[in-house]
What does this fold into?
Amino acid sequence: GLMDLCEAVKPHPLGCTISFEVVPGSSRLTVPSGYNPWRRAIEAHLTQEPSRGRANRQLKEELARVLGISELNVEVLSGHKNARKLLLVKGIARDVAVSALKLKMK
It folds into this structure.
């Protein structure tokens, strides 16, 4: 539910942060693909492999597209070389981000 997503999306002075659990090298690109309540993270399936930052770039591009913002406003704060990533989204309030992500999860 909505409360779950709020565990993954946190307010931040610049906008909000979103916790992701990514599966790179997937057959289909799906951002977001679901929610992992144990990890309190939003799941994302990426077609790119995690070499030379390709998966990170694809995640940033897709998240920006879902939120309707420039990818310049999205940055990876932590987990650059990890399946678990924390992204900072600038200029978007938490509830706006949660709504946009929920729309895509149906």
Remarks:
- The helical segments are 2-8, 54-67, 94-105.
- The longest helix spans residues 54-67.
- The two ends are 11 Å apart (CA to CA).
